[in-house]
Amino acid sequence: MKEITRAAIAIVVVCIILFGVNKYLNQSSGNASSDTLTIFNWGEYIDPDLISQFEEESGYRVVYETFDSNEAMMTKIEQGGTSYDIAVPSEYAIEKMKENDLLQEIDHSKIPNLSNIDPYFLDLAFDPKNKYSIPYFWGTVGVVFNPSLLDGQTFDSWESLWDPSLEGEVLLVDGAREIIGMGLNSLGYSLNSTDEKELLEATAKLKELTPNVKAIIGDEVTQLMINEEASVAITFSGQAADMMWENEGLDYSVPEEGSNLWFDNMVIPKTAANVEGAHEFINFMLDAEVAAQNADYVGYSIPNTAAIELMDEEVTSDERFYPLEEARENLEVYKNLGLEMLGKYNELFLEFKMSAN
Amino acid sequence: MQTKTTKAFYLIPYYVWIVLFVVAPIALIAYYSFFDLSGNFTLDNYQNFFTSVYLKLTLSSFWYAFLITFFTLLIAYPTAYLLTKTRHKQLWLLLIIIPSWINLLLKTYAFIGIFGLYGPVNAFLNVFGLEETQILFTDFSFVFVSVYIFIPFMILPIFNSLDKLNPSLMDASRDLGASSWTTFSKVILPLTINGVKAGIQAVFIPSLSLFMITRLIAGNKVITLGTAIEQQFLVTQNWGMGSTIAVFLIIFMVIIMIITGQRDKGAYANGKNK
Amino acid sequence: MSDNTIIRFENVTKSYDAETTVLKNINLELERGKFYTLLGPSGCGKTTILRLIAGFMQPTSGSIYFNGKLINNVPANERQVNTVFQDYALFPHLNVFENVAFGLRIKKLGKKVIEQKVIEALKFVNLVGYEKREIAEMSGGQRQRVAIARAIVNDPEIILLDEPLSALDLKLRSEMQYELRELQQRLGKTFIFVTHDQEEALAMSDEIFVLNEGEIEQSGTPMDIYDEPINRYVADFIGESNIVSGTMVADFRVKIGDKEFECVDQGLNPNEKVDIVIRPEDLEITAVDKGKMKVKVDTQLFRGVHYELSTYDDEGNEWLVHSTKKADVGASIGLDFDPEAIHVMRLNETEEEFDKRLESYGEDAYAN
């Protein structure tokens, strides 16, 4: 009994110490100095040559780190172990970071190249007047498919995924918002729905899809589609472009019921150590030539009108990746639904996954 | 008196280690499990765990962990036994252990190719006129790859206990009229049961919380407690719920360790007392 | 082959590969109810013979008969033979009772019968009251007894004992020698005992097989082997001996160095080179002029019952003497011995030839 009491006291003491240390760590900012620029970006989301070019032009040393989900990125920025100067969150994450007071205002006067950006992508709901973020890439969620493995199905409608002939053929992206959103869209609901009934209905509908589901995976989807291991996959437009680059037999479609339109914007976290450099970098990335080169490399769609003019017409006129404004009407941008709702989405998604076997 | 203080002094690093890396994390997990998303104290997480989703999840985790452990044992025991009989057993053992030095993810990725529709396994089946079958993203592939990854961890303790077994005990058993099977069940197995238990611990417990293989090989059609914890922390950012699942996982682990705990009976002659 | 034969080896050879042959063409016959000892240094093949009888290995060639039936391919668990192992091989996870009951349980005997038999076996080895003990709690001598009880409880026809006393200390060892011999006589079973200790062999056996490099050098009663070793190897292995080279001058006359002595051997070729054995206890210390041989005392050790003297003759041969008399180190003494003390061994004589020659003496003796 004595031992247990002692152990309990030890645990309490350690907890207190750890919380103290935690507080201290949160206050102190990282070790970056003014001649380095720390960038936090998605994997494979920049042409590495451009980083060298920026280093040469600006004289800064660039530290480049990557993340694979908005949530992981936010967690890291919130913890503040490293002071990132640039991060590239998606729109709903920007909303959340604003809420949590993680972002600095951007001084537009230091970014003359902002004029290159298509006004359609500016002053959007998640960041009015682009006070905190500057557009980087944008895209959609849709269906990439291999007509040679199919009997002429097209994916103008989400409904096509439920076709019994696709048994064990459909790859899904491992994301709660994307898949639950798809379920909602297929029923004609908003993919930002917070209505309990709509959500349950969508989950029930998704459960009917399970016979067709081959796997629910991450980036591996690219390789699987290229290798024709599966005939249909739900994925992001940029990833689809990657696949189609490697396997010309693939096609991409955004179903008419609607889908997700997403933006990844550059932001400057509150904890940034090199704010000056961050502005320089944003301006650099908006340069027409730089943006065009980057888009060529990454394969996603850019919001940069000046750059689009420099790019291959065949690419920029492809409505699958640069849909016309009318076509964008059906598309919805993810709203930050709050942690509570996100938890709900995830629990439903988990339920769906468990029914997949 | 002096020896007592010096002894205590030497124990400091041990205690610091235990406190920092064992006690503190567990305490933190337990602590977090009592908070909801907005940081209020709550018991909801525990209540939530007993809803059908998480219970089903727990059940399926145990079921797959059981399958993995069962097949690993089925393969590892005879293999370990044969190993002790080979001439260059240390070399063979090394060959079996070497793959475990390679990163788990690397091996897992390799299986994506191997089990693919156009991978070597299907190519092999083609030779016999069989059509390509979907191997990847099935229960079979998941259990197969997990078993492959865990086999060294099962073989090692079993091999050690078999290798320590005095061969004249087997002779004695035969001599007293026991058949090979009786010798195995009455002598070899009871004397190597500690190795088997250690192997089961080393396989079953991590199997409960496998998570990368579930995505890469099972296509997220198999969900374990580990996947759920990862999701709660990284995606949902519901640290409270994640911690709660982790608390249960820890409880399960402790229970398994108690069940497979080692009662060291007659340790003397388990070894060759020559 | 008599009806009493229980084990017969016919040209049994055992080799592991082309180079290592551990048994070379062994022929032997063992009778029911006797205490046999296989004696030899390690690696001589004695344990191999035991393992062949037990069924732990099969001969490379040749046949092994048990009660007249070929048992080459009968597995160990189907043989009416039980073994007491060198390291006892007691099951560490079972207590004393369960160790002894192991064989009975396999025969699926009733609970009562098992209990009765186990207690009886434990009585035999004086271990009643130890049933519940763990093996780890038993001393070396006690483990030894458990191992014996475990073997005899199955009522086998043969009990094999693989150097069972080697792990015990000297005092316990001689106690156990008596006990084993007595146990064998009480049970009336065939015991086959393997040892490298010649004293043990001489003390316990009805018959000894002396082995060397996979071959039987000589077999016979302890007295036969002690008194009439067939060759230098056996003489050297059995007891302490003075072994010197000599020449057979004529029947009953043998020459050692340049001295001739009277002996009891005959029928050898004139001037045949031979080995000569004189046991140390057969040499008697006398005055220099009275002895048949003159030697110089080099060292002297007090051994309790006797003195052990190391002496040298003029030609440099060492003569070991066991005597109750004392001598002075450095002094010259005379050694006296009877003609019977001289044992002449022909070089490279086989056991068969040796037996024949001995028999011919017997005939002569009767003739005399």
From TrEMBL, chain A:
Could you state one GO biological process linked to this protein?
polyamine transport
UniProt keywords (A-Z) are:
Membrane, Periplasm, Signal, Transmembrane, Transmembrane helix, Transport
Main localization of the protein described in the UniProt heading = periplasm
GO MF, one annotated term? polyamine binding
Q: Where in the cell is it found?
A: Periplasm
Q: Which InterPro entries match?
A: SBP (IPR006059), Sperm_putr-bd (IPR001188)
Q: Which GO terms describe its cellular component?
A: periplasmic space
Residues the record lists as binding spermidine: E44, Y92
Entry's transmembrane regions: 7-25
Q: Name one Pfam family in it.
A: SBP_bac_8
Name of the protein in question = Spermidine/putrescine transport system substrate-binding protein
Q: Which organism is it from?
A: Psychrobacillus psychrotolerans
UniProtKB/TrEMBL annotation, chain B:
Keyword Hydrolase on entry: no
Principal location = membrane
Name its cellular compartments: Cell membrane
Show the PROSITE patterns listed in the entry.
ABC_TM1
CC annotations in GO = plasma membrane
Q: How does it sit in the membrane?
A: Multi-pass membrane protein
Does this entry carry the keyword Transport?
yes
The record places domain ABC transmembrane type-1 at 58-260
CDD domains attached here?
TM_PBP2
Gene3D superfamilies per UniProt: MetI-like
Membrane-spanning segments: 12-34, 62-84, 91-115, 135-159, 198-218, 238-259
Keyword set, alphabetical order: Cell membrane, Membrane, Transmembrane, Transmembrane helix, Transport
Give the highest taxon in the source lineage. Bacteria
BP GO terms, sorted: transmembrane transport
Q: Which family does it belong to?
A: Belongs to the binding-protein-dependent transport system permease family. CysTW subfamily.
The protein's name in its UniProt record: Spermidine/putrescine transport system permease protein
What species is given as this protein's source? Psychrobacillus psychrotolerans
UniProtKB/TrEMBL annotation, chain C:
Per its UniProt record, what SUPFAM superfamilies does this chain match? MOP-like, P-loop containing nucleoside triphosphate hydrolases
Matches recorded under InterPro entries? AAA+_ATPase, ABC_SmlMolc_Importer, ABC_transporter-like_ATP-bd, ABC_transporter-like_CS, Mo/tungstate-bd_C_term_dom, P-loop_NTPase, PotA_ATP-bd, Transp-assoc_OB_typ2
What are the residue boundaries of the ABC transporter domain, all occurrences included?
7-238
- GO molecular function: any one? ATP binding
SMART domains recorded: AAA (SM00382)
Q: Which UniProt keywords apply?
A: ATP-binding, Cell membrane, Membrane, Nucleotide-binding, Translocase, Transport
Q: Which GO terms describe its cellular component?
A: ATP-binding cassette (ABC) transporter complex
Q: Where is the signal peptide?
A: none
The organism's superkingdom is given as Bacteria
Q: Name one Pfam family in it.
A: TOBE_2
Q: What is this protein called?
A: Spermidine/putrescine transport system ATP-binding protein
Query: Could you tell me which species this protein originates from?
Result: Psychrobacillus psychrotolerans
